[in-house]
Amino acid sequence: MPGTCIRAAYIEEMLNLNKDHTLVLMPGLDGTGKLFAPIIPLLEPHFGVQIVTYPDLDSFNEYVDCALAQLPASNFSLVAESFSGPVALAVMAQRPGLIGPSVLSATYARSPLPELTRMSNYVPDQMFSIGALGQFCLDVYEVEDEDFSETQPLPLNVTEQLDGSMLKNRISALSRIDISALLPGIEVPILYLRGIQDRIVSENDAILLQNNLPNIDRVDIDAPHLLLQTQPQQCAELIVQHVRKAA
Length: 247
Known about the structure:
The chain is α/β, with parallel strands linked by helices. 44% of the residues lie in helices and 13% in strands. The protein has one domain (2-112, 177-246): Rossmann fold (3-Layer(aba) Sandwich), CATH 3.40.50. It has helices at 2-19, 40-43, 60-69, 84-94, 114-118, 132-142, 153-160, 164-175, 203-212, 227-230, 232-246; strands at 22-26, 48-51, 76-81, 102-105, 190-195, 216-221. Strands 2-1-3-4-5-6 form a six-stranded parallel sheet, sandwiched between helices. β5, α9 (203-212) and β6 (216-221) form a beta-alpha-beta unit. α3 packs across α4.
């Protein structure tokens, strides 16, 4: 049927257009991007996917410069998780008009645990080697009290490979983050995903973003801090819908 052929051609054209658009995934504290493994297969049918990674850096500004150096030339959106949220916001402030509709997940504009993270300066590097400490962090901060048997081994396996000194430096950089003054000037359409069970990012952290970003939609998900890992299907659907609708 002619109508069916036209409709099929239109759908194919739209899919090709979407594939020309890249989602740049920006990782949390691990800096590797490996924790995106559960959600990448759900995004790839709709968009190109690129992952930002971080080496061992000393300051927040260095992380921003590192992310900027890895961005495509055009036709991209950011999906920034946790630690990378303020990095992504700083990138948006520096590159107005270049970045498409983007997503922030379980993140903040200023350090959510400043006193705790500042204490990292006084703790020996060996204490940041992931072992019992890593499991404790996962249990208390990341996967809460739920049984996420399919996803919990992934974050533990990733964090076990991190260098203690690097993790200490990154946490120290986190303690000094505050980019709240940049928020009112960021015009990028943003979808903000927050886990209801998140013990790191508070409601006040979320409200700070809501009240100061001029173009933000918020969705709360019944999940812990690692919501892209524990609820990948729901998050992927929301990300695809937002990028397509706002583009």
